[in-house]
Amino acid sequence: MKRANQLQPLSRQHHLGLNLSRHAKESLDEPEEIAKHWDNLTSYINDMAYHFQIEDNLIANALEPYRATESDVASVLETLDGQHKQLHQLINTVEQSQKSGNKGVSVAQVHELGTLLYDHTRFEERELYPTVEKYLTEAELDAVYEASPDSIKRPDESR
User: Is 147 a residue whose pLDDT tops 90?
Assistant: First the structure.
């Protein structure tokens, strides 16, 4: 799917998440497998904190004026917020459980986090970003690109 040039850096970050989440969803119920996948998923999500901030603040704020009149925007904003909260809520729940002395992570929790991340990434690529491309101005898209970390931009993008 061709993506607006300004969204390509954020979109590129999704490739690793899709790969990690797909493997986690299929992980075996073996302690080493569970720990490896949980660590991979949570590290990726923690590393994506700035990515989430761009979406939650810059993109959501730019779409907000359309929420009341455009049902597709209202739906996308509600889903975006809900999914980001679900991802962090599950991680926090497991971490709190571990601090309380409970055992490690279960295969069900790894599968759940893998599924949440996979579904969220697919949602962004299939619904959020097309909505962003439809409603944001060129200047707003440029602001998203400028806010994206240099580490995910390509030297040949020359924007």
Answer: yes
